[in-house]
Amino acid sequence: MKDTRIAKDGLVLLGCGKMGSAMLAGWLARGLPPASVWVTDPFPSDWLQAQGVHLNADLPDQPAIVLVAVKPQMMAEALPTLQAMGNGSTLFVSVAAGTTIEYFEQTLGVQTPVVRAMPNTPAAISQGITAIVANKIAGDAGLDEADVLLSAVGQVVRLSDEAQIDAVTGVSGSGPAYVFHMIEAMAAAGEAEGLSVELAMQLAKATVAGAGALAMQTDETPAQLRVNVTSPNGTTQAALEVLMNETDGFPTLLRRAVKAAAERSRELARG
To answer: Which tens digit of pLDDT belongs to each residue from 149-208?
Structure first.
């Protein structure tokens, strides 16, 4: 990962749980020197302790980037400890759900460059997607720096407005859980039709993974891919008549689910 400012001034990772660890692994794999990274985490994993980074050590005065990956409920305690880095050249990138850019500005100073990001858990295998949005102080330069960092764990998209974060949370941030639950439900349905537990789960996992890979790698739309699988009056059509039912099928259910997640994201932001 080529970023001369990080190599010179350092990168601070505040919190190194599952998401922080996934990002750190991605950066190190892309060539970021461990000596350029400072990690603050009260309960470091064995893996983290073996990476050669500065762990729970004194932080540089003005690092290039601070990536905030603590749990939202820990933010009020953790963020003020970095107040001296605010209103300067240090870019703050937050992956904490429900914590607004305004909160960072109020805590660190209104001249602090801030990028808010919403990643998802497939980042753990570098297959995530992260949405980012910046305050005016960070601007395009801050977005470019955040893009370099976050692309280490998957795709990055830029939002035009921070309010879109709540919808992103409902679709991609929480979305992996919807897919995991679909795998559970498909496997359970296979069991009900006489398959063994192991075989039903193997079929469900492989089907979802394969369909997702096909959707990503083809130029055809998901709608067309669905049509391609559906023979007139065949087995798939029989299933889709249930799943696409306008009253209680996928479209209605997922709209309700995404709306519920987005509303909860807004509630968290309001405190």
So the answer is: 999 889 999 999 999 999 999 999 999 999 999 999 999 999 999 999 999 999 999 999
Any residues with CB less than 8 A from the CB of 169 and at least 6 apart, and which? 97, 118, 261, 262, 265
The residues, ordered by sequence, that sit 6+ positions from 267 with a Cβ below 8 Å of its Cβ are 98
Three-state DSSP at 10 gives coil
Task: Report the relative pairing of strands 65-68 and 91-94 from DSSP bridges.
Answer: parallel
Q: Measured at the alpha carbon of residue 269, what is the angle toward residues 267 and 271, in degrees to the nearest 5?
A: 70
For the entire predicted model, the pTM comes to 0.91
C-alpha span between 112 and 137 (Å, rounded)? 7
Judge residue 79's burial from the number of C-beta atoms within 10 Å of its C-beta, 0-12 exposed, 13-18 middle, 19 or more buried: buried
128 has which bridge partners?
154
Query: What ranges make up the beta strands (E) of the chain?
Result: 11-14, 37-40, 54-55, 65-68, 91-94, 114-118, 128-134, 154-158
Quick count: other Cβ atoms within 10 Å of Cβ 180? 13
Q: Check: CB of residue 111 under 8 Å from CB of residue 89.
A: no
Spell out the residues 6+ positions from residue 14 whose beta carbon is closer than 8 angstroms to its own: 40, 66, 67, 68, 69, 70, 78, 79, 82
Which residues make Cβ contacts (< 8 Å) with residue 181, sequence separation at least 6? none
Please tell me whether residue 270 adopts helix, strand or coil conformation. helix
Convert the pLDDT of each residue in 40-83 to its tens digit: 999 999 999 999 999 999 999 999 999 999 988 888 899 999 99
**Owner of token pair 């998209």:** 157
SS percent in the chain: helix, strand, coil, step 5: 55, 15, 30
